[in-house]
Design goal:
hpI Integrase, Chain A; 3-stranded antiparallel beta sheet; two-stranded antiparallel ribbon; 5 strands
Length: 272
């Protein structure tokens, strides 16, 4: 199994998931490292799941870990490295967390941020619905002030990146970007003292704690942006395109309940 894992990571080199899989294998190796790919059984998967739960790991993490194992086995079968890919049983994927921020809370979050780069990060994430990775890697050459567009995907990056669209710049973000550009010291939109920023999680959490939302996070801002779009009645197809979702079905599954029209027509059939 270790050889298959290494071969898969080599084949997918450059993709973000490969970095994550380095950590995943540390968890999987004690259970599957001595096995051939075709020897893995449902009982092995259940033993792994129980052990990880006993260690305090959430089902979402276990789902991801066993999902990586499944991906390697399916890839190995397609490459004819193994005769077949055994079924990998894993816990159900947890429902998405419900928490999101209101417009008023986001305004307070910006005011509570203790540094300019965190304020800009909040404004960028909420106005574009960007994933935090895309925001941190955004460079000024992909910010078109004349056309008021931001290209979240780096055209020179050949790796597969989830949810990176080209989005318009609204008025509030435009003003914030103009101000930031005047003092820019690096090619990156989000910078601190002339250096590229690696993480904004702590800064956003600190600001969130000040306003009574200690659960605030970069991903919550993307989630909040999506909820706002759906609540304002925009179509799921348009929202999915804005977010860079490749599968509209996922947008429906997670966000349809926030739409004011969701299931409303069905109630007419229940009138008495």
């Amino acid at each position: 199994m270790p050889d298959l894992w290494a071969a898969y990571c080599l084949d997918k080199a450059g993709r973000a998931v490969v970095t994550t899989m380095g950590y995943t294998w540390k968890a999987l190796a004690p259970f599957f490292g001595a096995k051939e790919g075709t020897e893995i059984t449902l009982a092995d998967c259940r033993t792994y799941t129980k052990a990880r739960r006993d260690a305090g790991k959430k089902d979402g993490s276990i789902h991801t870990e066993l999902g990586h194992l499944r991906s390697v086995l399916v890839w190995a079968r397609k490459q004819r490295l193994i005769a077949f890919a055994p079924d990998i049983e894993r816990p159900s994927k947890p429902d998405p967390k419900e928490g999101y921020l209101t417009r008023d809370e986001v305004k307070k979050l910006v005011d509570a941020a203790n540094s300019a780069h965190i304020k800009l990060a909040i404004q960028l994430l909420i106005a574009t619905g960007a994933r935090v990775g895309a925001a941190l890697q955004l460079t000024w050459d992909r910010v078109d002030f004349d056309r008021r567009m931001i290209q979240l995907r780096n055209p020179f990056d050949k790796a597969h990146r989830k949810g990176r669209a080209t989005v318009p710049i609204n008025d509030s973000l435009l003003a914030a970007l103009h101000e930031a550009k005047q003092g820019a010291l690096t090619p990156y939109v989000l910078e601190w003292s002339g250096d590229k920023i690696l993480s904004i999680k702590k800064g956003i959490k600190t600001a969130g704690t000040k306003i009574g939302r200690a659960d605030a996070s970069p991903h919550m801002l993307r989630h909040s942006a999506t909820v706002w779009l759906v609540e304002d009645g925009h179509s799921m197809e348009a929202v999915a395109q804005f977010l860079g979702h490749s599968n509209t079905a996922m947008t429906y599954r997670v966000y349809a309940r926030y739409s004011p029209e969701y299931l409303r027509k069905l109630t007419a059939s229940l009138e008495i």
